[in-house]
Design brief:
alpha/beta; Rossmann fold; seven-stranded parallel beta sheet; globular
Length: 714
């Protein structure tokens, strides 16, 4: 039950914020504050302050313009502080993460009267490794002999003159306290290749054994996390922490209130987090390098005792595994009929999917041998990493100096990570699926392996519901999920199924401040072409598009496949093609900048984009006066995870088209329509070139779930 004291505090903070900013209260924002406060501020606790009742989870769909960040912050921060808990705000995108830390939270702190501290939590890969920088700057770019041996692991890095200049600048700014080692706070953009030289991952980091531990940018940032009230991070980091048991990097889930912004991404993020893949030919080559390098290492360093025995066991095991990899490659090549399929972004992805996740017996036998071999390799590298830690601690009997151990640890750490990844893949590939739960999706895909093609073996969960329920909702003190698109076809059922949300979920849709009927028109013209006939539909769009766009200054045209997008572009008259900026010809950011520049100069500009332009693209005012959507954005039918999910639903007597395809398409279409109105002053038109919206029963359901624009149906 929400206490009167906490209620008064939240109301007071909102009033002060509005007054300070000279804003009027928004109905949707007030409603959202009330819903969040009621659930997160009224959690029953035991004597130790831990949640004693059912999971406390609230889902709030709030459209663009509601002011979600302000609403959930004003409710959740006081609730967390009153309960003696930490607040973790997780977003799906870096852009929103940075907006919250650099703009929204400072604004709330200044104007609400609330007293709280906050920080940004990022993964280790966003921070400089001072030891790597030191190494690269020694004698220009000298590398130790062991690192040179492991060049293919990324340890031998050539640094040119420009690279050396950048490294020197980094060291100078660090020494002068003019930089904190965070990639995102460097004054210029750093290329990925340049950054890879100076960062590290958990498997290569020697932690407290490192000579630079006290000055480490990552650990300084992590230390700051223990002292603040609010931590802003991303979905992936929360999932990574939960996978480790929770409370390893972030606070203990039992002592945490979570806010998942852009929460419609969370189920897919969770699936991807627990998916596994390995390339057969590339792994065989890696095993060959491991065999060669460790044989050479033993020849250069006489290693008596246990450590020598363990290292000595690796080459033979690597050789055996390499042979087994080659057997598996031949078996997969023989089995797979790689017919091309096209994903939403239009890339060809030839693959062979195992129906129902069931792998043929002869492949299971080969995979089981690989699982056993990689388990042994994993054990060897784990034991070696432990011995290297002992040597770094100065323990006698290992046979290595602590300096030598510090040099070797990152190398063996990277080998352990790769061996473990392969072992996890073969475990998932050979596992027997429980009868009462969704199976794993398992498939082979053709991959570009450089000079020769490669085969990638994949295994992935098809639903993250069980994982999220078990490790998050049932454990966390409380959680809020929010987004502009949480419902599909007007219901939270899709989200509940995919995210495993508890039965006692409190769910609400709060109204957008936008007056859709006054601000926009939704048109469904009659193209005289069925979208299921791709050729005829593309030709009809080519004929109709110039007339549809008319005099709009900024237009966004969204396609479900690259093939159709290219087909429409190629079919347009030359004069019209000059107006069009097509996704993929430049980077996404450069494309958007060029479009805005054209509109600013008074020129009409048309953007052609795919799924990634249908979400997260912000084009207010004249930059987007018309959104044209080629067709209902159904998922590509051969996506292996979605296909496996459909099979499972059908086997249980369900209708996968109505339960999966239609709600997913509805959600994507709402997101696409969301590109039109970005501010309350925006006006414009949405045109959907798909008559199924009015001719099919499912189409009408999708149409009725769209925002309430004024409609013009031909």
């Amino acid at each position: 039950m929400l206490s009167n004291e906490l209620k008064t505090q939240i109301q007071g903070a909102y009033s002060r914020f509005l007054e300070a900013k000279e804003l009027k209260p928004r109905y949707g924002q007030r409603l959202m504050i009330a819903e969040v406060a009621k659930v997160l501020g009224g959690i029953e606790v035991d004597e130790e302050g831990r949640r004693s009742a059912e999971p406390a989870v609230v889902a709030v769909e709030a459209g663009t313009g509601t002011g979600k960040t302000v609403a959930y912050s004003l409710a959740a921060i006081p609730a967390a502080k009153a309960a003696g808990k930490r607040l973790v705000i997780a977003t799906a995108t870096v852009a929103l993460q940075e907006q919250i830390v650099h703009k929204d939270l400072p604004d709330i702190l200044r104007n609400s009267g609330l007293n709280f501290s906050f920080t940004l939590a990022k993964g280790r890969g966003r921070y400089l490794c001072l030891s790597k920088l030191d190494l690269l700057l020694q004698e220009g770019h000298a590398q130790n002999s062991t690192a040179q041996m492991f060049a293919e692991e990324g340890f031998h890095i050539d640094v040119d003159e420009n690279g050396l200049k950048l490294l020197t600048q980094m060291m100078e700014r660090l020494a002068a306290n003019r930089w904190d080692g965070d990639r995102d706070s460097w004054s210029e953009a750093i290329e990925d290749a340049d950054w890879a030289r100076v960062t590290t991952d958990h498997s290569q980091c020697t932690n407290r054994h490192c000579a630079n531990f006290q000055q480490c940018a990552f650990y300084k940032a992590r230390e700051g996390m223990t002292k603040v009230d609010v931590i802003v991070t991303n979905h992936d980091m929360v999932l990574a922490d939960l996978a480790l048991g929770g409370g390893v990097v972030l606070p203990d889930p039992r002592d945490t209130l979570y806010v998942f912004d852009e929460a419609h991404h969370l189920p897919d993020k969770a699936i991807n987090h627990f998916a596994h893949g390995t390339r057969l030919r590339a792994t065989a080559e890696w095993l060959g390098q491991v065999e060669k390098n460790l044989t050479k290492l033993l020849a250069q360093h006489a290693m008596p005792g246990e450590m020598g025995r363990l290292i000595g066991a690796v080459p033979e095991l690597a050789r055996e595994l390499r042979t087994q990899q080659q057997f598996m490659f031949s078996a997969c090549e023989e089995l797979a009929d790689f017919r091309g399929g096209e994903d939403v972004e239009g890339r060809d992805r030839p693959r062979h999917r195992f129906v129902g996740g069931v792998v043929p017996e002869h492949l299971i036998e080969l995979a089981s041998e690989l699982k056993k071999g990689f388990a042994q390799l994993n054990d060897l590298f784990t034991r070696l990493a432990e011995m290297l830690k002992e040597a770094m601690d100065g323990e006698a009997g290992v046979g290595l100096s602590n300096l030598q151990a510090e040099e070797w640890y990152p190398l063996f750490g990277s080998l352990l990570t790769r061996a473990q990844g392969n072992w996890e893949l073969w475990c998932a590939f050979t596992a027997e699926d429980p009868q009462d739960r969704p199976p794993m999706a398992r498939w082979l895909s053709l991959a570009d392996g450089g000079a020769a093609f490669d085969i990638e073996v994949n295994a992935s969960p098809i639903l993250a519901a069980d994982t999220l329920r078990r490790s998050l909702w049932n454990v966390a003190h409380g959680a809020l999920l929010t987004s502009a698109t949480l419902t599909a076809l007007g219901s939270f059922d899709r989200l509940c199924m995919r995210a495993g949300l508890p039965k006692n979920l409190v769910a609400a849709v709060v109204p957008s401040p936008f007056l859709h009927a006054a601000s926009g028109v939704l048109r469904v013209p009659d193209l005289q072409a069925d979208p299921r006939d791709a050729q005829a539909h593309t030709a009809a769009i080519v004929r109709a598009l110039p007339g549809i766009i008319g005099s709009a200054r900024g237009t966004l045209v969204l396609f479900a496949s690259r093939k159709q997008m290219q087909g429409v572009f190629d079919g347009l008259e030359r004069e019209w093609r000059q107006r069009v900026l097509i996704q993929g010809s430049l980077s996404k950011q450069a494309t958007l900048s060029k479009h805005k520049s054209r509109v600013d100069d008074g020129e009409p500009s048309v953007l052609f984009g795919l799924a990634s332009f249908a979400e997260g693209v912000d084009l207010p005012g004249a930059y987007c006066e018309h959104v044209v959507i080629a067709k209902i954005p159904f998922a590509v039918p051969d996506d292996p995870v979605e296909a496996a999910l459909s099979e499972w639903i059908e086997a249980r007597g369900g209708n996968p088209f109505m339960e999966i395809s239609v709600p997913d398409a509805s959600l994507r279409l709402i997101q696409a329509c969301g590109r039109l109105l970005r501010t309350e002053a925006d006006r414009g038109i949405i045109t959907v070139l798909d008559r199924r919206l009015v001719t099919q029963r499912y189409g009408k359901a999708i149409l009725n779930a769209l925002p309430p624009f004024r409609r013009e149906i031909a």
